[in-house]
Amino acid sequence: MTLYTSTVVTPRRRPGVWAKVGQSTVYAIGLPLLLLVIWGVWSSASPQIFLPNPVVIVQAFVKTWVGPAFVVDVLPSLGRLALAIVLAVVLGVAAGMVIGLTRWLREMLEPTLEFFRAIPPPTLIPVFILLMGISDTMKVSVIVAGAIWPVLLNTIEGVRATDAIMTETARSFALTRTEHIRYLVLPAASPRIMAGVRQTLSIALIMMVISEMFNTSSGLGYRIVYFQRNYLIAEMWSGILLLGLVGVLLAVIFGFAERRVLRWYHGIKEVESA
């Protein structure tokens, strides 16, 4: 007698939308809450002058930034940051497309680009002050000078990595130069361009703070240094907290834009991994 056995596989139900949202929320805020609890317990058990309790920092945050300081210091800083990011992305993509598509220009500029990329951007701040004076133009220029490199270099590499077969196919269809760039080169390079933009956001935020620490009397960076020099420790930490929140906001905005721009790319990856 032969016995036949079979295994019944029950497909796992996929979690619903609200379950996914709840899971993502737990993942996003779980570790920060745990760190805050550890920080609060530690600062209560052994009080530190330079590491106050999180509750004290939150109180200083509300007292410091919810009011005139938000209009005088925070909004101008965010305006300069937004303008510099737009300029860095536009100039980086435009220059990267031209350099990436022109072989002789790429070979000629490569040593020069590597030279300027190796220079730490904060060291150029005295030069910008001498050339432009202490102004908003100087601060925006400093941010652009430091933040443009990831977009520029990633765009060049993305253009160079365009599939050769697709390029030949585009030529066989007699596409114009504009159509070739719009429908082939730019989409092919967009994943690397977005990777460069992600790095640009972080560098731009850092350069914004550094540019406001030199010979200025307003701005988020200036205010944090002012608090540090006058031993207003809780207020100083509240400024650092605000910078972190700005970074989170930039990451959220970038994530939304990336999903829109690279919808086709993520769709291909999902099909390949299925």
Describe this entry's structure for a reader.
This protein has 274 residues and is an all-alpha fold. It is built from eleven helices and no strands. The protein has helices at 17-45, 54-65, 68-101, 103-118, 125-132, 136-160, 164-172, 177-211, 220-229, 233-261, 263-273. The longest helix is centred in the last third of the chain and has 35 residues, at 177-211. The radius of gyration is 25 Å and the shape is globular. The model is unreliable at 1-6 (pLDDT under 50).
Present the secondary structure layout.
Layout: H1 17-45, H2 54-65, H3 68-101, H4 103-118, H5 125-132, H6 136-160, H7 164-172, H8 177-211, H9 220-229, H10 233-261, H11 263-273
Helix pairs in contact: 2-10, 3-4, 3-6, 3-8, 5-6, 6-8, 8-10, 9-10
Which ranges are low-confidence, i.e. pLDDT below 50, for 5 or more consecutive residues?
1-6
Distance N terminus to C terminus? 41 Å
Count, helices? 11
What is the number of beta strands?
0
Gross morphology is: globular
In percent, how helical is the residue content? Answer: over 70%
Q: Structural class of the helices, strands and pairings?
A: mainly alpha
Beta-strand share of residues: under 5%
Write a brief caption for the model:
With 274 residues, the chain is mostly helical.
Question: Can you give keywords for this protein?
Answer:
globular; disordered N terminus; 11 helices
